[in-house]
Design brief:
- Helix content is 20%, strand content 29%.
- Strands 4-5-6-7-8-9-10-11 form an eight-stranded parallel beta barrel, surrounded by five helices.
- The model is unreliable at 594-612 (pLDDT under 50).
Amino acid sequence: MADFTVGDDHFRLDGKPVRLLSGALHYFRVHEEQWDHRLAMLRAMGLNCVETYVPWNLHEPQPGVYRDVAALGRFLDAAHRAGLWAIVRPGPYICAEWENGGLPAWVTGRFGRRVRTRDAGYTAAVERWFAQLLPQVVERQTDRGGPVLMVQVENEYGSYGSDRVHLRRLADLLGEHGVSVPLFTSDGPEDHMLTGGSVPGLLATANFGSGAREAFEVLRRHQPKGPLMCMEFWCGWFEHWGAPPVVREPAQAAAALREILECGASVNIYMAHGGTNFAGWAGANRSGPLQDRDIRPTVTSYDYDAPIDEYGRPTEKFWLFRDVLGAFADGPLPDLPPQPAGLATPVRAELTGWAPLSGVLESLGDPEPPESGVPPTFEELGVDRGLVRYQVDVPGPRQPYALEVAGLRDRAVVYVNGVREGVLSEESATLGNPVAGPASVELWVESLGRVNYGPRLGEPKGITGGILHERQYLHGVRARALRLAAFEEPGAVAGVPFGEVVEGRAGLYRGSFELTEQDRADHAGVELPGWTRGFVWVNGFCLGRYWSAGPQRTLYVPGPVLREGANEVWVLELDGAGAPYAELGPGAPVRTGTPRDVQAPNGAYPLTVEAG
């Protein structure tokens, strides 16, 4: 057992000053069989601590239905075995570029703008969740012989609100459930964020990517005593579909890290290893003063331009960080574990079976609810990740008029009388060709990820307004959901009516590829040349979303998912398919050289409107 405390000047472990050299690694973004390797890489980089968020929505997908909450405990045990301390950030809101900022869709659907406030109903839901989660943390605290040094209260609350009653209640809840290690908050180094997000009596920490001296000066105005810590040192950044790649020059990032340490501060590198947004869990952002502009969904890869890349390999940034951290380490750094090996021989998975979306929906979809006057949202249908087919009839006879969707979130492929007529989005929600009546209309509406940061947190998905013909609402809507979770069930696609492949069509494709014992690898990458947008599974494991919009072209395949002999591939194409095969290879190359640096207009890095 160890006694970890927050002193007037330093963190102290059994009374002795200690500096935390931490790195963010999210257990839910890394295949469990690869945790040990990634944690060993953190140690080899010179870190003595690991930090993780906890996504509520992953572990309680429906009210009172809990899914592998013990995964957090297993990860903390793995960190302990690796010789690392641990910092836990349980939320309930986490941001993290994760779907809905970690809040379950059923929570935001039920409480709306009352989430992240003192609202009694929301607080009661948090209390029930914490009662399930926190035993995993409590029994692994340092004062009980475990690795957990500190626990965060909420997350970057000053970027969202100012309800200090809510923050105080969350801090009290942690204590009531047995958390005895120090609590802390983290916010951007700005006066309004620190006043809105800090809790009197708890350690406040700052999040930034550069300018450590200036950031800590601001923090000191609010907290004259206590150890300094950058809880999120943004060494890279995340990417959005349809936007350019985002990278940070390694030497610049290393210099910013050195400045933090030269200030005598502790640090948590965000991210040390980013991992992957498997199974459609990537979030989304909005821009503008009230973040009311177009949706910007986050890509499947959460590589983050981190020093340890998505494939678990050291980058140029890793070696520079190791040099910086080594100067502040107690003794020589450990050697690196063996570097992960990619698939040595590329293989092609021929896709030999196909089923239309309608057939997939009949096999895996929810029961169709009664016809409704207005289109129900995803939240009203209880859907988190996936798509919903909306059906409505245009009465007739009537002349051709524009068909429009009000409040579309996020994307709809439209069929009129069974013929694909186009794709609608929030910013382009009117069908190109007018529709005459009578006509039958289908809209396959897909969520591209719920907003994870800012005032639009918790906004509903699906058709949130209505379907209009000319200026007339069309009523009598039939809605049926196809959840991604339905593909997670054992034998999920056994009842899908697969037939011969019809190239270019939306639907579910199935195929396979063979691997020999010599083909065994720590990872692979899969690409779908010419395909548009959808999801890929290998042996029932959902790799996440692909999209021809880029910048991501290759989806990461964890080695533990692959097996000797036959491997099965499913591709759910939502718009238009390419040639009927998927290509598997070693994956993306290790980042080398000097990448392009992304700067905000004022020269600060990174953009301050979005935070980890």
